[in-house]
Amino acid sequence: MNNREFIVRRIAQEFKDGDVVNLGVGMPTMAVDYIPANVHIMLQAENGILGVGPKATKAQENIDCIDSGGSYVTTMTGACYFDSVLSFSIIRGGHVDITVLGALEVDENGNLASWMIPGKKVPGMGGAMDLVVGAKRVIIAMDHVNKDGKPKILKNCKLPLTAVNVVKTIVTEMAVIDVIPGKGLMLSEIAPGLSVEDVQKATGAELLISPNLKAIAV
Amino acid sequence: MNNKLISAEDAVKKVKDGDTVMVGGFLAGGHPDHLVRALVETHSADNLSIISNDTGTTELSIYKLVKSGRVKRIYASYIGSNPETGRLLMTKEAEVSLFPQGTLAEKIRAGGAGLGGVLTPVGIGTIVEEGKRKIDIDGREYLLELPLKADVALIRAHKADEAGNLVINGSSRNFNFVMAMAADYVVAETDAYVKLGEIDPNHVNVPGIFIDAIVKVGDTHE
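Above: the input entities. Below: the structure tokens describing the complete assembly.
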């Protein structure tokens, strides 16, 4: 199992039956493949679908049914379509239970940086700012450290923020970390074979250790 | 009733130098490619401001429009799929303003709905708040986001009737509905064009009063 699969398998355990969920393009979207059979979620695509189904086959491809990454998708029974104003009313209005997004940096206050690297990469924030401010629970799916081996979980984000005080849970290939408002980052689960020291060494902020610390089981 | 059916070439002649043009669609979904192509290939209006969720992808006509040098200002939420928009932003050859997607939708809605602006918590604590008024409502901070309007909106639908009532299928509604409210002159390209009464009022997605011109681009007869 590679790191991405490990991360999204763990995230899929967070979904409860009936949840409205919005998954970011890329790794977060892979989580749908690992949802337990008895859990049924309503997947939202912010371009205007609630009840996104599996990817479309070649024969099913229809430009009027795409997800927010522009991929052709199908719809589940009971799905509905709407325009961008209504879609972001769902998002901003607190009607999305969980959103899962990637990140460049997360800090101990739950601040998130995910949308730009000044002077290098400015793809735009798209729907990410609305999603993390509006969703009831924000889960970050990301590698624990960046390509240079430097921590992405910090005391204070350095890159331009997507939003402040929004992240609830961070899932990486090393750990599950919960943001405890006013206290900091709580190490709740740890990947098999790693020690608390290993995780702390790869993290740029001090970790509180959960009294119920356990191994990630996926 | 005035006949709203015209050609793409005639429709885009409404765009004048210095105009603001809204372009509907989300990536390729609901993108009015025939109208944008006509604007690029048959018309020379310059110094344009474009309002588009994402300025499309490299396969769409809006990519050529952005590359034409005729676009001086762009308002969008995501531009990662159009590298030319990113280049204009980096080189400052055009003024590119980025807004959270829901904020962009609400700014356009405010423009079309007669509102003086909207208050949103999205963007607080980020560079999005720069230069904007912050207003406290019951202890929570909101940004005042001002309305966006356009001279011309180019949108796409599946079907129109003679009154301009539109049916838009699936996820192609996106910005096509709200942009229809927020421009002085609104052109919809459609696959099908039907007689008045042939669209069930229950199925109208966009009231025809918003629509000034229809350009039929498909071969669908219904």
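Note for the figure: The domain at 18-98+149-216 of chain B is CATH 3.40.1080.10 (Glutaconate Coenzyme A-transferase).
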